[in-house]
Sequence to fold (384 residues):
Amino acid sequence: MNQVLVLNSGSSSIKYRLIDMDDRARLADGIVERIGESAGSVADHAAGMDVVLAALKGKLDRSRLAAVGHRVVHGGDRFRGPTLIDDEVCDTIRKLIPLAPLHNPANLTLIEAARSAFPDTPQVAVFDTAFHQTLPDYAYTYAVPQEWRTDLGVRRYGFHGTSHQYVSRRAAAMLGREPEEVNVIVLHLGNGASVCAVREGKSVDTSMGMTPLEGLVMGTRSGDLDPAVCAYIARQAGPSAEQIDQTLNKASGLLALAGSNDMRDVDTAAAKGDEAARLALDVYCYRIRKYIGAYLAALGRVDALAFTAGIGENSATVRAGALLGLEHLGISVSPKRNAQESKQERYISPYWAQTAVLVVPTDEEIEIADQALQVLGRADTAQP
Ligand code: ADP
Fold:
């Protein structure tokens, strides 16, 4: 029993990976996209599971499958770690749908399809929010009326927890220390983006809030915004709450500022002198810089900054732009190291730097697989 199947589902996609945990080898992986979209041929996440099963034919050995690990976006304040799935857990994930109306239903449909496909295999839920359940109350509390907080669950939950946990642990390993010995700021810059302040292995603050909309500028999300803008736009232009939500999540961010949600396009256009792209890059990097400043203050001492995800791992422009002017705080990149392209974990700070600046490719799938085995009490596989 050494195989784990990881199912990482977004609102319209399923990333899957079958892993041999003895040597952490990928036996199969892939992505099913455009689920539920009119242009796609996959109606829902249950049909997506059939596509995954077909792709795994001949590779997956049921007699060796130890667990199925599921990414679940929102665990509210109910789930503080990876959890063995049963009917009650599914009910709780269902109750949390109002907090993640696009993601939790998709995650649940996939869990149910996987439970019927593998009725005898333990299924484990790994929540995007769980790592942030260690936030102190003063970091997760919004200053809003009591009823909103207690009856409606309005508070900061944070997301990308699996990635922040994995990357902060790898950052500690790169420094040759235990996670409990280091303070790290993790910058997860993908399509979605968030920053996390990790003190001694635990998340103590993060930029995404009750939903993934808050914080950094993202591919299509605005990030931080005066909340009064929503009421103002509603009064002036008359869109519904739903439409405003949609605009801020799907039609804002880099897309709204530069006409593309892909940082490669924005970077290329800015280099050619496109003014909108230049502004988008500056807004993007400045927002990151402000959060770094905030989390330096929150942590007091920072041993490393770690860049990860599509933009963090690949964009030298963003990494340099985000850290611009922080030299007096002991934070900088070596232009030569930063410019080197690589898929490996690496240092990009100069050798004399006070604070290590690292690039750490994230691996949510391996983290989910590890956490799934931990729940089963089989955490006997070698760590990388
Ligand atoms: P997701 O949040 O969907 O998992 P990823 O972590 O894969 O996203 O990041 C996707 C984003 O990474 C793309 O939208 C693109 O902007 C960015 N990206 C990928 N490669 C590069 C690159 N070489 N330079 C700059 N940005 C890149």
Notes: Residues 271 and 278 are 8 Å apart (CA to CA).
